[in-house]
Amino acid sequence: MDVERSGGSSGFARVGALLGWVGCGVCLLYAAFALASALEAVLAWRGVVELDRERAAPFLFVVHALTGAVALAAGALQLRSTTAAGGGATSFHRRLGWAYAVCAPATAVAGFLVTLDYEVGAGAVLAFGMQSTLWGGTTLLGVAAARRGARASHRAWMIRSYALALFFVTFSLVHPAVVALEWSRAATFGLAVPLSTALNVLGGELWLRARRGSTAVAASPSR
Ligand code: HEM
To answer: Which of 81, 105, 188, 193 has the largest CB neighbor count within 10 A?
Structure first.
């Protein structure tokens, strides 16, 4: 019975690890897209290429997309390597952690400033502001917990923070679905932004529950 159970749970663990790597790969692809968008904006600025439409606040957009690419990639690699290695503050973990901790709030602040020039209506600007505050805030709480040596709290805030970093991914899926409703631009953004944030917050909490569940199973005396 025990053998069957452990066989079953190691099968689950392998599927979980595979899904984790697939997720990490998807995040790296989105990071590559963000990097390409930043480079394209720089080339457009220098008159080398022409864009279909001008970027809002071009300089801030470049900062936003560059720091966003680093945050997305560093966070994905960090969470994956921490899970695969079972945790631990190696120097690789610290370097990736600082890259994420600096770039995530920078992306959130620059993103919000870009929003002010994006003409999406007051409701969407408020929702973008909420997203920036939650993302920057959870990241800073995660860093503060790490500085105090509170590892469990650090991990929980960083999972919440990275779930909010995935706004870039969620929004790219939610926005086209809301566009299909054919509402005004302000209404489309006014729904798509808070909906994406809500899905990210929910996803972060489910992720934490799943982790707590798997930690409890691993620590159970029958195993
Ligand atoms: C990891 C997170 C993020 C990354 C990597 C990222 C990166 C990008 C990229 C590459 C674009 C261009 C998209 C396209 O052309 O289709 C973009 C657009 C934009 N982002 Fe972000 N973003 C992130 C999060 C945020 C956040 C949190 C906000 C605001 C609170 C924000 C505000 C905006 C705005 C307003 C635009 C439109 C700018 C324009 O096209 O003129 N982003 N972002």
So the answer is: 193
